Amino acid sequence: MVAIALLLTNLPEPKYRWHEELAIRKQVQKFNLIDQKANRKWNSIMLEGREGTVSFDEMATQIDEEVANTYEESFEKLSSLPDDPNLPSAALLEQAKAYALKRSEDSKAAADKLRNIPFTPGRAAQ
Prior knowledge:
Blueprint: H1 2-9, H2 18-51, H3 56-79, H4 90-115
């Protein structure tokens, strides 16, 4: 009993908390699915634009609401996770956050460019 007590009192502090690691892994997996869905939505919006079934402004609104906002929300969720460099998935989390932020910013910029294209009757969105 004394040996067990000594062992328990002399255990080193863990380098990280396992539940935090699991939370990061779970959220990154969710983000990967969200990213795939957002990419499919982006392609769908672009297809509608090429077919001429939506205006540039409608495309921009869809991009903002269904792509850019999705990435922005994902960035916020990822940013709320523990920021501990000792976690095995710390680098993965940073990469996912950077990617989500970039995709959000790029999507917003694309939507802004679409809104600034002058309207030409009969011209399909490109």
